[in-house]
Amino acid sequence: MHPDIHYKLSSKARIPEMGAPCPWYMSRDNYTLPCMIKSTQGVGGRGVFLAQTKDEAKAAFRELKSNFQCREPVVTEVIQVITEFLNVQLYLFKDGDFHWLGVRRKMYSQCLDLTTPDVNWDEQPELRKQALGVVLPVIKYLHKNNYFGFIGIEILINNKGKFLIDVNLKTSDSTYLLLLAPQFAALDFPVCRVIDILPLSVEQLVEAIDELNFEELGRMIVLSGDECSREKPVKACVAVFAKNADKAFLLHRKLLMSCSPTICDALYDKNRNQNIRNEAIRDKPTTVDMK
Hints:
Blueprint: H1 3-10, E1 25-26, E2 35-43, E3 46-51, H2 54-67, E4 74-76, E5 84-92, E6 98-105, E7 119-120, H3 124-144, E8 149-158, E9 161-168, H4 173-186, E10 191-198, H5 202-213, E11 218-227, E12 234-242, H6 245-259, E13 262-263, H7 270-279
Antiparallel strand pairs: 1-4, 2-3, 2-4, 5-6, 5-8, 7-10, 8-9, 10-12, 10-13, 11-12
Helix pairs in contact: 5-6
């Protein structure tokens, strides 16, 4: 994959060209309020602003120009009253065929309650049917432009329809999760919740997971981890697989009580959910980078 092709196709400015339903795109010189203002290239969930006034929009444009080197940001309408937020993962081959990995329900309080799992493997046929109309035009566009590889496609759904909001040409926690999910479903653990926690130590986290994995409720796997401050506390992303949503939720809470005094649940994780919280205008508007 030539890096220039990858860079071009990774731009949010390409989304209207893909042929899938998407939010209404505007320009920095001609837009209506409220609006979303975004960096064209994804920066780990940063560079996304909700503007409800002219001053907020101007501040967002200045921030993107000075700190993100983005002179022509993406400006779109705001999608409101969201009922579903789906993350589709697949692999596109050179010949245009593709392998469907699955659909993850993103944790977002306006459309899901706290006990809703990220993945229920029994729901995958229905979720694929729900997302396919948005996904197929994206696949066709990327293949036509010589892309092959992993793809993450994010879709918002409300009472007005389905909207393509992002296309990520890379692997992510969602990729790894959906590679694991069918294997655990075969072991009679079809339901999965993903949690982000701040353990007291790596050793304590691993010991707590090992102990809980001996129980019959389910199984846990650490998807990823990172140091997140100058003092170097570790932030861990853990997948909890179980027989049903209640048992997954129970295991989630047991792990938090065992190894983490600080809950860093995905629901409140700004890096992973700031984009979608802004889309729904749920909280007070901001034009400040929330990382």
